[in-house]
Specification:
The protein is of the alpha+beta class. The chain contains eleven helices and 23 strands.
Length: about 450
């Protein structure tokens, strides 16, 4: 299985993910094709250039996005300007103060910035960085990009995650959210770049380490924001993250949204045969190399750790248990099932069992308590072995039907989709068994 693993021990930002994935492209021809596409997006004044970067003996790439020849980091006089600065509701009055010397700590160029307070004497003349775009504006710009529909859909999905997080952070409808500079052309280039690279690399699965979000606070002209900042924290709900000794904001809203959209699981690096490694570099230096490391390789069908949650019920009707099971499946449970049991004093009861990814167990626990009468839930961690599954379509004497294909561990099997069999059985008043024999 073609797998990308992302080492996020120094957080994540759009430009760093962009550069790390760029290094995974197989040859110079693919890299040149990517850069040519990025510089042909139709975003006026935008240029994208990969630059060699060496940090603590490790060579990687810094992806430079310039607007009219100026890189985002060159547009501010603050000494420690970060990789990326937040999108914010136009009315939230969160501005970075460049006089306090304590800005974002990772000088990156995703183009997402707080609206800047100019009362500190640092006047900035880059007017193109001080407009505000709605979600509708973003969708209009993205729809015109010369990329595939799949890439466009990914870009819009990432922006929606950010907009929804800002909406929650500021308690305003998404329609009232206006992006501070996240809507500018350099930012769209960063997000589009990552989405385009994922499309070019076409991994079957993306795995990432828990995210190092940094620690401390971000000082702003109108107050102090904790790390991770509110929008980032909303995006990362349900995703494993941690702080550390490094002070400052290591994971940006855009980095968080890109990870949430593309990463299928978070945890340790899987057993894989690595074919390529990429390093996406930030600008500032730390005691730990400031980069996102991406690895591309093949993983075999391996066991995956899953959480199994169970509880005993003796005072619920079957209908209420069925409703709970529906809610758990809707929330992403891998499997939900029940077993009849005999409890204390020979009371007949039902054991409810839920299997889910470890990242979803907290959500599942909340749903079980909400929709059942239990006052206690047991948890165990199991290893789950699965075959690779895909759904295809075939033409039959009854018309087009879906077929489920499974393979792995030296075994292959296929079966027709039950819903299609049932539909045909109803239409011609025949048994499913006979239809299967005639296929």
């Amino acid at each position: 299985m073609k797998t990308i693993y992302l080492d996020l021990s120094m957080g994540a930002a759009g430009d760093m993910l962009n550069a790390a994935l760029y290094e995974l492209l197989g040859n110079n021809e693919e890299k040149e094709k990517y850069i040519k596409t990025m510089n042909s997006l139709g975003l006026e004044g935008v240029s994208v250039t990969p630059e060699k970067s060496v940090k603590q003996g490790i060579t990687g790439t810094h992806m430079t996005v310039k607007i009219d020849g100026a890189e985002e980091g060159e547009q501010h006089e603050g000494p420690d300007h970060d990789r990326e600065h937040h999108t914010h509701d136009h009315a939230d009055e969160h501005h970075h103060d460049h006089a306090d010397g304590h800005h974002h700590d990772h000088d990156h160029t995703d183009g997402h910035h707080h609206d800047h307070d100019h009362t500190d004497g640092h006047h900035h003349d880059h007017e193109h960085n001080h407009h505000h775009s709605s979600m509708g504006d973003i969708e209009g710009i993205v729809s015109a990009l010369p990329v595939s529909d799949r890439v466009k859909e990914d870009v819009i999905s990432v922006y929606k995650l950010i907009a929804e997080a800002e909406s929650k952070a500021h308690d305003r409808p998404v329609s009232e959210i206006h992006f501070h500079e996240v809507g500018t052309k350099d930012a769209i280039a960063d997000v589009t770049g990552v989405c385009l690279l994922m499309d070019m690399l076409s991994p079957d699965k993306v795995v990432a380490s828990p995210i190092h979000v940094g620690s401390g606070h971000v000082h702003c002209a109108h107050g102090i924001l904790p790390v991770p900042a509110p929008a980032t924290a909303h995006i990362l709900e349900g995703i494993p993250m941690y702080g550390g000794r490094i002070e400052g904001e290591l994971c940006t809203p855009t980095g968080a949204a890109l990870l949430k959209h593309f990463v299928s699981e978070f945890g340790d690096m899987p057993v894989m045969r690595v074919a390529a490694t990429g390093y996406g570099m930030g600008k500032k230096d730390f005691e730990q190399v400031n980069c996102v490391r991406a690895m591309l390789g093949q993983t075999d069908e391996m066991s995956k750790a899953v959480a199994e949650l169970s509880c005993n019920l003796d005072d619920m009707t079957p209908e209420r248990i069925a409703f709970c099971m529906e809610r758990l499946f809707d929330a992403g449970a891998l499997d939900v099932y029940t077993m009849p049991i005999v409890m204390k004093k020979s009371r007949l009861g039902t054991m409810l069992c839920v299997m889910c990814e470890e990242s979803k167990r907290e959500e599942m626990v909340k749903l079980i308590f909400k929709h059942t009468t239990t006052i206690g839930i047991r948890e165990s961690i199991s290893h789950r072995y699965t075959m690779t599954r895909r759904i295809g379509k075939v033409d039959t004497r009854y018309g087009e039907m879906r077929v489920k294909h499974s393979e792995g561990y030296g075994v292959e099997r296929s079966k027709y989709e039950y819903e299609d069999l049932a539909r045909i059985a109803r239409e011609i008043s025949e048994s499913i068994e006979k239809i299967e024999k005639n296929l």
